[in-house]
Every structure is written in C-alpha cells, then in structure tokens.
Amino acid sequence: MRNLARRSLGLDRFSGLYIGALFIVVFGIWEPSLFLTMATLHSVAASQAIVAMLGLAVLVPLTAGAYDLSVGSLANFATILVVSLQTSHKWGMWQAVAMTVAAAALVGVVNGFVVVVLRVNSFIATLAMATVLTAVQSIVSGQNQPLPPVAAGWIMLAQRQVFGFQIVFVYLIVIALVLWWVLAFTPAGRYMHATGGNLEAARLTGVRTGKWIWISLIVSGTVSGVAGILYASLAGPSLTYGPALLLPAFAAVFLGSTQFRPGRFNVWGTVLAVYVLATGVEGLSFVTSVQWLSYMFNGVALIAAVAFAGWRQRVTRSTSLSAAETGSASVSPSACSESPADGEQAAGERVGFGALADVPRRVTESR
Q1: In this predicted structure, what is the pLDDT of residue 17?
Q2: Contact, 281 vs 293, CB < 8 A?
Q3: Alpha-helix residue ranges (DSSP H) falling in 64-205
Q4: pLDDT (mean) for 187-209
Q5: Could you give the CA distance from residue 126 to residue 28 in angstroms, rounded to a whole number?
Q6: Residue 166 in 3-state DSSP?
Q7: Distance from C-alpha of 68 to C-alpha of 85, rounded to nearest angstrom
C-alpha cells in the first residue's frame, strides 16, 4: 500500500520536483524579498547553465559505460584558448570559436583513442588528460590570465537577453534537446545504452562497443568546449574555475538518474538536478554568508544520490526475485518472451549503480 501511494504521487520518479518546490516554499517564506524575485530566477538560470552543460558532457560517456573526468579542465582550457586567440593573436570571434570547438573535439578523439585502442581505464585516462590540459593551458596563457575581449558581439554571445533570460540558458536547452533526442530516439542512443547496460552482451550481439564509447567521449569533449567558450563570454577568462565544476556536474548526473527514469542516466533528470541543487544553495546563501556552503551541498547531494539509487536498485532486484519465484510455476512459454522494448527497458534499469564502480574495468576488459 505504501509503495502504491509513493508511485501514485510520483515520489519514485519526480522527487526532485517536490524537493525544488519545497525549497521555493521554505526560502520564499524565509526571505521573500530576496528569493521570490525575477532577478533571482534569471540569475540562477544563467549562472548554472555552464554546470548543466558539463553535466550533460559527463552524462554521454556514462551512458556508454565510461567516465570522463577531463570535462572541467577541458572547459577551462577552452575558455583560455578562445580568449587568447582573440586578444593575443587577433583572431576574429567566430574563427576563434571554431578553432576552440575543434580543439575540444580533438581532445575527445584522443581520450577515445587512449580508452578504446590503448585500452587504458577510462577513469585513469581522462584524469590524466585533465592534468595534461592544465599544463597546456599554462603554456597557452603563459600562466597569466588573459584580458577579456571587448567586442560587443563577443559579450552578446552569452549575455544577450531572450525573454528576460540570458541566452546562455537558451543554449543549454537546445543542447539538452539535441542530446535527449539522440539518446532516446535514435539507434546511436540505443547502442550507447546497450553498451553501458551490458558491454559484453552488446558486443556479442554485434554492437561495435568501442566505436560508441569513442563517439561518446568526442561528444563529451565537444560539449565541454562549448561550455568553456560560453563561460568566457558570460563571466570572462579564469585560470581555475573548471576543475571546481567537476563535482557539481557528476552530482547532477547521479542525482538526475533518480528522476523520471530511475536507474538510468537521463538528460532531463540531470538538468533538473542542477537547478534543484542551485535553488537550495541560492536560498541558503540568502540566510547565511558561509563560503563553503556550495561545496558541502554538492558533496552531500552526490553521496545521497548514489546511496539512494543503490538502495532503490537493491529493493527493485529483491522485489523482482520474489515475484519471479512466486510466478515461475504458472508462467506460460508465451509469457516468457520479451519484446525489444521490454529488453531495452530492462537494460536501462541495469545501467549504473549496482556495478558503477566496476564500469571502467568492464570497459577495458571487454573490448
């Protein structure tokens, strides 16, 4: 009865919406003059768009069963590169943007080569790439923060107003829509989910698992590069911001995997998680001035999300085993057949948490 009530309220899939609504009510009552304003809404939407993009960059390789720990450093490198090309080398804005996106995609290609061809653990490979990118960034910048471009077109690239929101938020929605469509409705998305759900089974059924892992890392690198470019236009160049966004990005992806389609990494769950966490941090910032708040909030959220998802998977597995034992004697042969859609659903439910710590090893050993 309790499970039925939980499902009827959508607590198993929409808990993030309830938590977000709770934050709005609590902080709206506590600090209405600060929290319940359009300025706060617009500020949160724009300031968290870069984190959400990096969350989506993390999401794609995780869908295929691989980690990308270089997204923060790559975004930071893209920020410095696109600015340096314009201010130090006098490139035009669009030429600098195109070169930076190409460089970010190339980093994804290299990550894919190291993981797929050299068979290096994706966790180790992308962590090493993050360190390499920090060194390359220092070479490009000369260890000095470059001056920001002053062209109006550059500033408007991320700060133009669209219905009161800065356009960087619109870019986020466009990227999310594209990735959602690809992952949910195309063969490429199904191959990535199959690879992440059971790499060996996918390989035995003819899926070129290495190819899809490689592509996922290229997409991750490209999205990270775009995020870095937009950050440069939105907030100006910075030498250190990128690595600090890695934890919030991962926290959003794992927390998002408990939303809408629990147990499966998904685009809209990730975006929702970013803004629910940001709403909580923004509300708390109005009632306290401590500097460590966002770090504590994101760290606790990541632990809670993974712990909750693991608990839910154990409960689901226990319920399924009990149901199978109860009904095994009365199941007809025709009832045993599984449709492709059911198989995909089952594979999706197996993604991630039960064997999450095992993902890099499985990716390396099974290719």
Answers
A1: 85
A2: yes
A3: 71-87, 93-112, 122-141, 152-159, 167-185, 187-197, 199-204
A4: 92
A5: 41
A6: strand
A7: 26
Got the DSSP string for 18-47? HHHHHHHHHHHHHSHHHHSSHHHHHHHHHH
Backbone angles phi, psi at 311, to 5 degrees: -60, -45
Instruction: Characterize 30-63 residue by residue with b for buried, 16 or more Cβ atoms within 10 angstroms of its Cβ, and e for exposed.
Output: ebeebbeeeebebebbbbbbbbbbbbbbbbbbbb
Closest alpha carbon to 149 in 199, 208, 100: 100
Backbone angles phi, psi at 182, to 5 degrees: -65, -45
**Residue ranges per structural domain of the chain:** 2-321+337-366
Cα–Cα distance measured from residue 354 to residue 200, given in angstroms and rounded to the nearest whole number: 16
Residue type, 332: S
| CA-to-CA dists, residue 46 to 159, 230, 363, angstroms | 9, 11, 36
Q: Are 196 and 65 in contact (CB under 8 A)?
A: yes
Cα–Cα distance for residue pair 18/96, rounded to 1 Å: 43
pLDDT > 60? residue 340 = no
Cα–Cα distance between 222 and 110 in angstroms, integer?
Answer: 12
- For residue 82 the two structure tokens come to 């696109």
327 falls in which pLDDT band (50, 70, 90)? low
* Cα–Cα distance, 158 to 94 (Å, whole number): 14
* For residues 335-345, average pLDDT: 41
- The structure's pTM equals 0.84
How many whole angstroms separate alpha carbon 327 and alpha carbon 366?
A: 34
Instruction: Return the residue matching tokens 């149901």.
Output: 323
Which residues sit opposite 226 in a β-bridge?
none
Domain 2-321+337-366 has CATH 3.40.1130: no
pLDDT of residue 208: 94
Would you state the structure tokens that stand for residue 331, as one six-digit string?
A: 């199941």
Residue 341 above 80 pLDDT? no
Predicted pLDDT at 115: 96
